[in-house]
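Chapter review: from sequence to fold.
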Amino acid sequence: MSFLGQNIKKLRQVKGLSQQAFAELFDLKRANISSYEEKRAEPKLEFVIRIANYFSIPLNDFIERPLSVNEILNFGDYFDEDSLSASKGLTNIPFLNREGFARNDEYFQDHRLLPQLQFPLYSKNRLLAVEMNSTIPHPSDFAYSDGSILFFEDIDRNNLHLINGLFGLFWGKDDFFIGQFKVEGTEITLQLNEWKSVSLSLKSPEKFWTLLGSFQKV
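The token string follows.
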């Protein structure tokens, strides 16, 4: 049994690509991708090989079994796969990769549309993972390199007095940046630099996240 159609659809969705955009990557037509996903046709082997190589997925895995989101995101490049597979209590975490960040549309705006990676990390607050890249505005002393996976948790109202000096993320409708929290009395701001900062409003705390940890390629 071939899982090509299922895996092509999952690949496309995780990478945030429309059928048309996916087809154009491999000199195909949108109708070809639709027929593959609906299992009305199977792609030629040459295209299967091109797709697998493009996304760095082993050919046999691509053909013979359903792919996980972690595999599609090549999370094995960051972590020891054996230790991940042996871990219990894996948490599903929305993941904004560089492809998703570049889209800047409804996919980018809605956390529910993001692919979910599995990782042995727990928090009583919501979690969010972001692939660091140079196009994300960030302070000059933010020492995380491109390709690092940054894990954020949303604001805990009970611990606002503890976030002074911590790095955080602002994700608004028309703005996205990493900054540093500053607490002065009851005023809390997330500061990108001396020219730009955003005040934290308890009426919309869901726009603010605090940096929980960073994981980089092994």
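Two observations follow directly from the output. The longest helix spans residues 4-14. Strands lie at 91-96, 116-119, 127-131, 149-154, 167-171, 176-184, 187-191, 197-199, 208-215.
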